[in-house]
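Researcher: Quick test of sequence recovery. Tokens follow.
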């Protein structure tokens, strides 16, 4: 039986991973590091150009989180408020040598806490078929609707799923 929510996070050793929000006080270096990481992990392996993220339109107030281990950037997440109640996770990436160590879980739980503190009710994502199991472990379920198709991803065998969960 798969573990969900707190059961899952308690099974992982996530000590030593600090998650911070990128905001007005953040440096351009942190923002650049986040987008470099996203490109390295998500888009470079698909031979997509480095500026590809500019084509992924973000409507609404963005939430950007970075995860550091011993001061080194190991993961990042970009989400956007689509309404007063709903937040969409647009991108999440963890360096390959830091995967399966709780970094992604820590990012999601930091985001959930932040959303909850700001009155958010629902979080959703258009997940790659390769990342859907990760989200399901954290309590996300299939959301209604038809997931988009994208020819640049489809040629690499990547399809998408709509997933959601309530903010507890």
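Model:
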């Amino acid at each position: 039986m798969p573990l969900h929510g707190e059961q899952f996070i308690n099974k992982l050793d996530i000590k030593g991973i600090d998650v911070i929000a990128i905001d007005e006080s953040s440096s351009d270096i942190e923002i650049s590091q986040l987008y470099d990481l996203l490109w390295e992990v998500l888009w470079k392996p698909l031979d997509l150009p480095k500026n590809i993220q500019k084509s992924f339109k973000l409507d609404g107030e963005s939430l950007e989180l970075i995860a550091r281990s011993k001061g080194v950037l190991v993961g990042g997440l970009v989400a956007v408020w689509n309404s007063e109640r709903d937040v969409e996770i647009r991108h999440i990436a963890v360096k390959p040598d830091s995967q399966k160590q709780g970094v992604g879980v820590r990012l999601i739980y930091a985001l959930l806490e932040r959303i909850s503190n700001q009155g958010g009710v629902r979080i959703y994502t258009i997940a790659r078929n390769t990342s859907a199991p990760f989200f399901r472990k954290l309590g996300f379920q299939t959301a209604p609707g038809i997931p988009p198709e994208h020819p640049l991803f489809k040629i690499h065998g990547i399809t998408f799923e709509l997933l959601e969960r309530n903010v507890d």
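Residues 1-13 have pLDDT under 50 and may be disordered.
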